[in-house]
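User: quick one, sequence for these tokens?
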């Protein structure tokens, strides 16, 4: 036999109120699982949108240049030449990889921004026509 839950003031809860609480909790969980940017329509600056790929791009360029310097040092330095020959190409490849990732990331963000603008426009059109 299932006993109804009692609240702190001693009154019993009815089953419909329990369903209401459950459905509200479910929608809260669903909302919290989504990112904030989907729900807020405030416009962001270019730096806020592109700062991550720009940082990856600049770090990649710096590491690539560092690898170039190390490889050029291997031509001029006669001592411990093997260390320069091993680490130079590693820095070159790591820098090139970060550089390409940053360069590819920027068009992806642009495409997402266009899709988001289209989606907001279509949502406003839908609300305009269907809420009359």
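Assistant:
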């Amino acid at each position: 036999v299932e006993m109804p839950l009692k609240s702190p003031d001693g009154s019993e809860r009815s089953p419909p109120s329990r369903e209401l609480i459950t459905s509200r909790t479910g929608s809260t969980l669903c909302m919290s699982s989504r990112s904030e940017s989907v729900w807020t329509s405030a416009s962001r600056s270019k730096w806020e949108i592109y700062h991550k790929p720009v940082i990856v791009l600049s770090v990649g360029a710096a590491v690539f240049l560092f690898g170039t310097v190390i490889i050029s040092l291997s031509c001029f330095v006669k001592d411990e030449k093997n260390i320069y020959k091993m680490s130079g190409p590693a820095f070159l490849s790591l820098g090139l990889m970060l550089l390409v990732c940053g360069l590819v990331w920027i068009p992806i963000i642009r495409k997402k921004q266009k899709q988001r603008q289209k989606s907001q426009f279509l949502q406003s059109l839908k609300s305009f026509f269907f809420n009359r």
